[in-house]
Amino acid sequence: MFIDAGIPVSIVAPRRSALVRWNLSAVLLVLLFGVAVTPIAYADALTHGGHHAHAARKLSPPAQRGNTRALAQLGFMYEHGFGKPQAYTVAADLYAQAAAQGNASAQGRLGLMYDKGHGVPQNFVLAYKWLILAAAHASGREQDVYLRLRDAVASKMSTDEIVEGQRLALNWEPERR
Asked: What is the pLDDT along the chain (177 residues), one digit of tens a residue?
């Protein structure tokens, strides 16, 4: 079953039983080690010859042209200080540019930044929105991870905040460049 924006209901509405069963320590492991939310594409750019600075230089021109994959990868490098100085604000801006165009990885990373207040003011409603969208644009294991993260954020929210996050996700439209 799909809602107006083509997002499956299962992605928009949190699974209440999953909220109860979800172990927050698992979320912390994912966040600390980035295992499940770091796509393979990041590994390609970040390990280019073992030189993070070189990879960052290679990513800058396509990122400046609005390439969502390059924006997301460069955002990841700024977030973690790989080849660039660690700068959450810059990372959040790069993620926001890619997320606005529908890049699932950037949407998920931006949602996590809103959840933690890294580079942006902490805002669970926006974190929830971006994690819903990340799950809607991802597939397989990556989608499952974003759904679990969305549920973990929902556990910190009121019902009204969840409804607002769902409304924002359903009314979202990708930017066209």
From this structure: 555 555 665 666 665 544 433 444 444 434 444 444 444 344 444 444 457 788 888 888 889 999 999 999 999 999 999 888 899 999 999 999 999 999 999 999 999 999 999 999 999 999 999 999 999 999 999 999 999 999 999 999 999 999 999 999 999 999 886
Which residue is listed with tokens 């927050």? Answer: 24
13-171 folds as: 1.25.40
Cα three-residue angle 128-122-52, rounded to 5 degrees: 90
- Please name the residue ranges forming H helices in the chain: 9-12, 16-21, 24-33, 40-46, 52-64, 68-80, 88-100, 104-116, 124-137, 140-154, 159-171
